[in-house]
């Protein structure tokens, strides 16, 4: 086992996949010689050549659309969207074509590509570089939505995404790219898409979250344990679609109290869908209304106000108090 | 004060001359250029396809008016473009990425009429092309399919295959960014893609003059450094000829071609539209006088390959074939509840299975 950062694990997954399967390629802006702006594709151009490490013209609709045609004709493109906010021009291909091809051709054509999307804030980036756009896609049938929170899952989920027969949107928490190292097997392995993980076991309340806020939740859980002796269970969803409802509901039934943490704007988000699902499947087990810790209904703020927007452990602890003392 | 030069006016480049309209067959059936290299049997097959498609298209309009089909985009008048763009492709190897007005090209490549009928009756199963026929489902979003065509050809190139792809678009479809992105990507990566513009003069009601300023659409190829061609879209021989050149070039590694066909739809944009609001009867009649089917009939008769009796039998045969397809399409029932859910992913998600179960339970309670 090697100790890798999350970005190294992604880089390793891409290389492992490309060595295993000649139909896998990476494409996007600056992913070739430069290795991508975050270096996710570092060394791939050198090892696999320019036909499989493709620097595309600077046009998201063009290269996501071209990747669609490639996937339909037998290749497995792993497309890097340079930053979350830049996916918007390719929206037509994602929602009108990629998500629907298998369905509308009744299985005659499929589109097994992966869109890698460095997402969310916390790195003090420019405007349009720190967006929470996963909610655009959880409301759009036909896509799989995957979010890793650590290096091991990043490699295993990305390899699973590349193997998947359907299109996968792979949201990468860019704030975690170099935040810490974790044990990562050097060879091929997969983490199944659609299975949540229990990041911390506990009996007093359930925190549902994904991506970078698994760590916010863990920090809050440790604070609450130290301060109040409350043991929170942190569920890392890992996949928003398919969703591991069984794991969520089992935890909710066990604890009876729920806090949901995401960075997306508060209204109309996937966190609200989670509340509705708990309502459908475990209402009678609840001891308190489900609490949400989210961003606000404003555009993602620029450098100086970023901290006001992002959920932090303090806000999570306050939400834990609200569900515990209801 | 010096102003920036405008090469288009200052060099007196005449785009209409530079992109001269290619023609082989005059409206009266006489030749003005070399015929395409086809056997008499192939010539008759091309003619048979055009006649069949005219009959099919007119029947679809009637079915829609009778309430037996949903909204339909007719292509009558564009048969030479439809057949000529797909006839020389290699079935099972080459791909087409059509619009909603390209069912004629899809049929030419091998999509059965029952598929098209079922599709417009509201059954997505109609978009499932038979195995071995690489006809992508129609794209209703405009111009997106052009970048798909580029990607499919790009994939073939990476795999070492000499596949050719054709992306279809109309004159209105040359305005969105994807038209330009497709040309740029195809040019930069030299993909075996033919971008085929059927310029039928109106995007629903918007005329060419309000869609683009250039004298031709083919000249846009100049900006991307790829070959551009203008062709008489009512001349089946000319369409076949320019496609032969573009297909051969693409298959040999010579990259993409932009083809602009000057054509006309006799009917409405779709069955929901009344073209009398934006174009005159005189204009329609002027185009009908250049009809692609009549033009080829005159040629075949002059060549001694065709008689009036042959023609009568062909139109009757086409009507019978279309009737049989309609009967078959109408005999297929409503799609099942399973079909609604089971094709979205290779394996349905747990949530989809729950929703399917709910709907089935609800329907069974209704009886």
Question: How would you portray this structure in words?
Answer:
The complex is a heterodimer of chains A (326) and B (367). The longest helix of chain A is centred in the C-terminal third of the chain and has 16 residues. Chain A has 12 helices and 14 strands. Chain A is 37% helix and 18% strand. In chain A, the strands form 3 sheets. Chain A has a 7-stranded mixed β-sheet, sandwiched between helices. In chain A, strands 9-11-10-13-14 form a 5-stranded mixed β-sheet, with helices on both faces. In chain A, strands 1-8 form a two-stranded antiparallel sheet. Chain A folds into 2 domains: 183 residues, Thiamin diphosphate (ThDP)-binding fold, Pyr/PP domains (Rossmann fold, 3-Layer(aba) Sandwich); 128 residues, 3-Layer(aba) Sandwich (Rossmann fold). Chain A has 326 residues and is an alpha/beta fold. The mean pLDDT of chain A is 97. Chain B folds into 2 domains: 322 residues, Thiamin diphosphate (ThDP)-binding fold, Pyr/PP domains (Rossmann fold, 3-Layer(aba) Sandwich), CATH 3.40.50; 32 residues. Helices cover 48% and strands 9% of the residues of chain B. Chain B has 16 helices and 8 strands. In chain B, helix 7 runs parallel beside helix 8. At the A-B interface, helix 3, helix 4 and helix 5 of A face helix 7 and helix 8 of B.
The level-1 CATH class of the largest domain in chain B: Alpha Beta
Q: Order of strands side by side in the largest beta sheet of chain B?
A: 1-7-8-4-3-2
Percentage of residues assigned to helices of chain A: 25-40%
- What is the average per-residue confidence, as pLDDT of chain A, rounded to a whole number? 97
How much of the polypeptide of chain B forms β-strand, as a percent range? Answer: 5-15%
> What number of structural domains do the residues of chain B give?
2
Low-confidence stretches of chain A: none
Ranges of chain B with pLDDT <50 over ≥5 residues? none
Task: Write the CATH fold name of the largest domain in chain B.
Answer: Rossmann fold
- Counting DSSP H or I runs of 4 or more residues, the number of helices of chain B is 16
Distance separating the two termini of chain A: 45 Å
CATH homologous superfamily title of the largest domain in chain B? Thiamin diphosphate (ThDP)-binding fold, Pyr/PP domains
Characterize the quaternary organization of these chains: heterodimer
User: How many domains of chain A?
Assistant: 2
Which pair of chains forms the biggest interface, and how many residues does each contribute? A-B, 48 and 44 residues
Record the strand order, biggest sheet of chain A. 3-2-4-5-7-6-12
DSSP helical segment count of chain A: 12
Structural class of chain A: alpha/beta
* Biggest β-sheet strands, sense, barrel of chain B: 6 strands, parallel
Label the overall shape of chain A: globular
